[in-house]
């Protein structure tokens, strides 16, 4: 983790310094101060886009060192940065041109829109605004996961339009051979990471392992487990607690992809995912034909015992978030000093409970099923309740997975109890493909 943090810091600092060097020595000089500010904002925007691409490229260094939850936060913050820069960059450039030519701002914007490089940039800005508008919480709740994911594919169009715009309009990158090599070398690295980790590696792995559906097992009225087999699965290097991005060709469209955790520790012979019907893809898993093809991208995530700092462990699950918790409990490395807290509204909602009980009994772990509606008399993750159930909580690594509200309540309680941050591991699954 320390080396990864240092590598990320060096990458950001070196490239930000280079961006300012490009701005200071770029030719031709800006026509006025406003235009110069617009040019600098454009450089910031281009670099922010490069960072955003790296965040979704599934670089092993980032994924294994920081995990999905932290990368999700960075992705959202970078996305908001891209959004504001995408608005401010053209606005300052247009105002700068208008001041230089002493023309009205609307007339200047219309004139620039008639030039195809500027028009491509404006289209990219419109697409960014659309994606961000559909990603805010109020809009996101109205979209299915599949629709939200499809909308985000528009960002690849933004990337193409942005690169064309940079190539034609980016005078700061063409000052000399060194600036050209640096800038397009940066983008070659970024695009190479994206293609290698999101396209080439998954294609090679799926060709090698030939994944197929071995069994489909209903766990409850709205939860189903899918067992997947293939060749040489031990070479995947999957760990308990990790997830894959799953596609089912022939059963769902190619762009319909969902992140599902392994609900059983990988054993080199099969993989198992367990999902709740919350969208079109997950609802259809019950009807998957045995023998149908599976395309899996992964394994991903740092929600594993590799990052454990203590020998004692507390596992906290909420709802269907029990799946990676159940796989962690099966991991032979977890030891025998384990406490499991499983939060559900009612006993009928506790999927995989029988398996948890069997695993807990085999390991000598303590399992607490926490039921009922959360209210004044039922606050299972209040710091006092947590300490009562787990007196030595500060001496344990804590793994929590569940709905956002539950996870945030647990994390708030752990902070108040002063559990060291290096011992806290959370998975929210807020970032998909």
Number-wise, the strands total 11
**What is the gyration radius calculated from CA atoms?**
25 Å
Counting structural domains, the number is 3
Structural class: alpha/beta
Q: Note the total helix count.
A: 14
Low-confidence stretches: none
Shape: elongated
Biggest pleated sheet: 5 strands, parallel
The rounded distance between the terminal residues' Cα atoms is 23 Å
Q: Tell me the strand order in the biggest sheet.
A: 9-8-7-10-11
Residues in helices, as a percent range: 40-55%
Strand content: 5-15%
**Topology as H/E string?**
HHHHHHHHHEEEEEHEEHEHEHEHE
Q: Mean of residue pLDDT?
A: 87
Transmembrane segments: 7-25, 37-57, 78-98, 118-136, 148-168, 180-201
Cofactor: FAD
Domain FAD-binding FR-type: 206-306
Keywords: 2Fe-2S, FAD, Flavoprotein, Iron, Iron-sulfur, Membrane, Metal-binding, Oxidoreductase, Transmembrane, Transmembrane helix
What this model shows, in words?
- The chain is an alpha/beta fold and 433 residues long.
- The protein folds into three domains: 2-205; 211-300, Elongation Factor Tu (Ef-tu), domain 3 (Beta Barrel); 305-427, 3-Layer(aba) Sandwich (Rossmann fold).
- It is built from 14 helices and eleven strands.
- It has a five-stranded parallel sheet with strand order 9-8-7-10-11, sandwiched between helices.
- Helix 2 runs parallel beside helix 9 (177-209).
- It is elongated and about 80 Å long.
- The two termini are 23 Å apart.
- 36% of the residues are buried.
- The mean pLDDT is 87.
């Amino acid at each position: 983790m320390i080396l990864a943090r240092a590598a990320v810091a060096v990458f950001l600092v070196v490239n930000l310094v280079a961006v300012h060097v490009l701005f200071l020595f770029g030719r031709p000089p800006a026509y006025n101060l406003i235009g110069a500010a617009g040019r600098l904002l454009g450089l910031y925007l281009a670099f922010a886009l490069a960072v955003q691409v790296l965040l979704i490229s599934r670089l092993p260094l980032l994924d294994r060192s920081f995990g999905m939850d932290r990368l999700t936060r960075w992705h959202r913050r970078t996305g908001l940065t891209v959004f504001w820069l995408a608005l401010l960059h053209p606005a300052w450039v247009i105002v700068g041109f208008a001041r230089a030519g002493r023309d009205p701002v609307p007339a200047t914007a219309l004139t620039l829109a008639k030039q195809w490089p500027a028009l491509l940039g404006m289209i990219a800005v419109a697409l960014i605004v659309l994606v961000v508008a559909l990603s805010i919480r109020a809009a996101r709740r109205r979209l299915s996961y599949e629709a939200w994911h499809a909308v985000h594919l528009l960002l690849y169009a933004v990337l193409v339009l942005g690169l064309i715009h940079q190539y034609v309009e980016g005078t700061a990158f063409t000052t000399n051979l060194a600036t050209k090599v640096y800038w397009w070398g940066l983008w070659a690295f970024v695009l190479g990471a994206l293609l290698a980790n999101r396209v080439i590696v998954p294609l090679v792995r799926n060709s090698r392992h030939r994944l197929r559906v071995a069994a489909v097992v209903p766990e409850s009225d709205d939860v189903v487990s899918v067992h997947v087999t293939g060749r040489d699965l031990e070479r995947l290097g999957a760990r308990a607690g990790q997830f894959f991005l799953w596609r089912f060709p022939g059963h769902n469209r190619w762009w319909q992809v969902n992140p599902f955790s392994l609900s059983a520790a990988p054993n080199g012979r099969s993989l198992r995912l367990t999902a709740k019907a919350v969208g079109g893809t997950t609802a259809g898993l019950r009807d998957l034909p045995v023998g149908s093809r599976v395309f899996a991208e992964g394994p991903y995530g740092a929600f594993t015992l590799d990052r454990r700092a203590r020998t004692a462990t507390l596992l906290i699950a909420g709802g269907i978030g029990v799946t990676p918790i159940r796989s962690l409990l099966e991991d032979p490395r977890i030891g025998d000093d384990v406490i499991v807290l499983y939060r559900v509204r009612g006993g009928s909602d506790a999927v995989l409970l029988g398996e948890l009980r069997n695993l807990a009994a085999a390991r000598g772990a303590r399992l607490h099923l926490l039921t009922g509606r959360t209210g004044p008399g039922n606050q299972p993750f209040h710091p006092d309740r947590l300490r009562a159930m787990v007196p030595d909580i500060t001496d344990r690594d804590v793994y929590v997975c569940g709905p956002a509200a539950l996870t945030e309540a647990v994390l708030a309680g752990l902070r108040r109890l002063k559990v060291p941050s290096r011992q806290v591991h959370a998975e929210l699954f807020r970032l998909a493909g």
